[in-house]
Amino acid sequence: MIKKANLEAVYVPSEDVVAREIEGEIIIVPIVSGVGDMEDELFTLNETGKSIWQKLDGRRKLKDIIEALSGEFKAPLEEINEDVVGLASELLKRRIIIEAPKG
Amino acid sequence: MNPTMAAVKNGELLLSKEALKDLVRAVLEKKVPFRIRAKGFSMSPVIKDGDVIVITPLMDDQPGCGEVVAFLNVPNGTVAVHRVIKRSAGHYLIRGDNTRGPAETVTKERLLGRVKTVERNGKKVRFGLGPERFFIGYLNRKNLFSSLVHASRKVLLLLNGRSHR
Description:
heterodimer; A: four-stranded antiparallel sheet; two-stranded antiparallel ribbon; 3 helices; 34% helix; B: alpha+beta; eight-stranded antiparallel sheet; 25% helix
């Protein structure tokens, strides 16, 4: 079952990935069985994906990230909401982000 | 907004040498090994163009003579893989096994990791990374290893030619 990102949740990049901003994109290398593998599956996030990724800092709720992005992007709030939840859900499904520990 | 995440498989991601260097450093800084496809011929026949190598991060121990290391190549800002042929306090004399030019002096700050595994066509290749590395390192230091490899190739070609007559 695909887990959908929760607006009230706080997310953070998993310890099992290495992410770097390279040439305007975010490149994510999953650490599989203790090895970073360029020959396996890597992930890239485009410019707008990068804006979302940079806010997944383990401090802000997803709904606060959407609010912050509404000030940066001239798009209807519903569209931003859908895009952010969509991307966060995809990242969550692939275990690239996890819910931040509470407290 | 249209944020997109793309999955890239089997080394299809085309990165500049500079970008690749950043990625290698980022993974090794996390103290995990990095599996990557090697390009070039400077370490042939131990590492051939297209082989997949595993670079392991350096912990507290420093690589010794004969070990194959990944290091930051300062003139062009890339990651290179060569063999340590001599070690002195904080400095390493490094040269590719298939290189006849002068060896390069590298400080330990430029070392990124050591090559522990080489895979060729899906199989592990052990030659050049086991105990024989000391001997290869010695021959490389004397500038003899590449000559020996070239001579061996010529002999093999000659023998192969005769067997086909």
